[in-house]
Amino acid sequence: MSGRQKAERPWHGLFVATGLWCIAVGVGMMALWLAEPAGFAARHPGVFGLKFNAALADAIVGTALILIHRGYRRLPALMMAPVLLYGVLALSQHLFRIDVGIDTLLHTPFVDIGTSLPGRIAPNTAICFMLIAIAVALRALKGRGGLLQTALGFVTFIIAAAALLGYAIALDFAHDWITFTRMSLQSASCFTLVGATLIFAETREAGYPRMTLAALLGVATYLILLAMTYRELYRFEAAFGLTFSTNGPHGTLSSLVLISGTLYCALVAHLFHSARKARHMAADLADKRARLSAIIDNAGDGIITIDERGTIQSANPACTRIFGYHPGEMIGRNVKMLMPEPYHGEHDGYLARYRATGEARIIGSGREAEGRRKDGSTFPIDLAVARLDLGGGTVAYSGIVRDISERKRYETALIEANAELEEFAYRTSHDLRSPIASSLGLLTISREMLADGETAALEQTLGRMERNFRRLDHLIQNIITLTRNRLMEEDDQPIAVGAVVAEAIEALSHLDDVQRITIENHVTEELTIVAKPSKFHVAIGNMLSNAVKYHDPQEAQPRIDIRADRRAGRVRISVEDNGLGVPPASRHLLFQMFKRLHPNRSFGSGLGLYILRKSAEGLGGTALYEAREKGSRFIIELPEREGQ
Amino acid sequence: MKLGSILVVDDDENDQFICEYTIRKFDPDIRILKALDGAEALDILRTETPDAIILDINMPVMNGFEFLDRYAAEFEEHAPVVAMLTSSHLGKDRERAMQYAFVKSYFEKPLTAQHLTVMAELLGA
Lengths: 644, 125
Hints:
heterodimer, A: alpha+beta, Beta-Lactamase, five-stranded antiparallel beta sheet, five-stranded mixed beta sheet, 57% helix, rod-shaped, disordered N terminus, B: alpha/beta, Rossmann fold, five-stranded parallel beta sheet, 5 helices, 44% helix, globular
């Protein structure tokens, strides 16, 4: 059952309650008439205002209502036919001053009270029977409410309620439309209930607001009563010549009733209008609030409000994501819980100073600061604080917090990359010029030697120039390798590590002294790795050429060993030598660009290990150095991606 | 004034050769001391102070600037003429080098007889 149906239930119960009341009144009165208690009738003549026929009609209406509630359609509609007929005939007798014999058709009254003729009912009662007979039949046939039913119920209610109130305030005309024939109290109660049932039960389906209907009903009943009161009072004044002026017309009191009634109606209308407006405003406000909180709750940035002393008053869900605290853990605590030092210690001071002097550091402007998560870790934030002047001089602050860790990371990476590039450009320009400057010097010397005929010395100087140019060529080759490594897009491929090592060893043969060195490849043939082939070749080649270049010329048996193994999800390839090693003081400079760490061996470009590191990083791994008792071990560790 | 002795600090063997040759041509009487990096140079300077130092910047182990820092800090007596000799064109290197009181000149490689003349004049000044 939906909530809406559930809400309709008590209104639906109105059918049963009204039905039962009508049956009880009807059956009770019929029993009284049949019992003919003469003494009781003499003591309480008013009870017999409800005639036998009318009591029967009431009982029929009550039964029909209960049947409708049970889901019957035709039977209750059919039952309304005699009721309608009874109402029409009863009214006709008044209108056309005839007697169709309906009054004593079923029962001859033993006593005659409150009526012009025995058993005759009042015209307002007859009208009410007609109206409810039609409305109840409609409801039974349609199975739901409608405009006509509501209108009929409305009129019935007003007539009956006016009669009821007439009894309450002793205004006879309210129930006695014609002299000596009155609507009985019992009938009035039944009609009021039936009218209300027709108006309110299931009106939601028909689309009428109940509040408005109830208000209209109240006002209409009041107006009718007012009109009746005015009429009676006016008649009374006229009859008794009641006046407050010596020779003026009478009607002061009756006019007063009318004026006060008009004022009252105006007040009611105003109240009703205000209430409606207030309801609309409340709904509007609730809607705006819902929108605002939807925005705040779904905002990507953390939104916090604090009071003047820094106590957190609200925090949106993004704060939980950013800081790791649940809203309940933040609200009521001081906002400095979200700040690391020095902000943590200084925040109270900021607030106090701002309160005292109005001197704002960040209020009204944004700035970068630091936040502290629940786990104690700190992170960079972008913070925008605004002052909120709430009503009654209360001041609060709202803070919008954005976690800028990622941006900062990119920024740092960018700055580092830029610095590296700048360093590279600086060192390159220097190192490119260096052999050229040297060669220019050697050229001048060569000319002099040529002029002096020092052929042997000239030969030697030319050799120096050649070495210069080779060095320059080597440097340029390295730069090309680096640039290509950086720019080249390549796909991962399965690579046989042993074969690449063998190839790299082969390529070393042109280097000086290589014949003297024992180079051993211990890598098993099966070991494959999925990586970018070109970068991998460069890395292996650099490790090997580095080991050859920095072998120890004094060593009787220089050797280089290449090994590879899988370890903790990584492939580790090491190149070991018993060469010169790296002096401890210089180890921190390893892998940096243009660092030549060995005195007297300036043939390197200073880029070899830098290229090694860049290649390893390009492969998603790292380059490492381990000192040996004698010599070095260079290692690259690459992420394991098993070959197919 | 005549240059009596010059310390050449350069890791590049060719540059050392050019310096030696040029100095010999300029004045065969000048005594030439050689160091391949800043550390070697400091070792030599602990035993004697030459009339002039010709200093490269980019060297392994201890570069020219590191050498200047140490030389300024650890030595009370400095060679009268310290001349930078480098392939670097950069103004900021030059500015940095010239901050040391004893650095008198900044030359670009290769070393020439004119450079030596300037140094001799600086020594006389």
